[in-house]
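Checklist before submission:
- one chain only
- standard amino acids only
- sequence pasted in full

Submission:
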Amino acid sequence: MPQHVSIVQQVGLAVLLLATVAWIIGLVRILRRDRFAVSVWRTRQPLRTVPVQRGHSGERVELTPAERDAFAGLVRQLAEDRS
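Returned file contents:
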């Protein structure tokens, strides 16, 4: 080291280098562990898909005239809000 660099600066540089090396080692270990976990995850069977509903079940509910009017009013209100 040059003579104009103080001992505090040299110690600081050494601590910084040690911290950098420790960080790199930790990062490599985490990435390797995650790579193993991903490979284990990929070898598992894929998730089953949600079944697609085909047609309607045949259930039907009759609305009263008041319910039909309320629904029609709601549809009109939503149509006015969109325009």
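Reviewer check: The helical segments are 7-43, 65-82.
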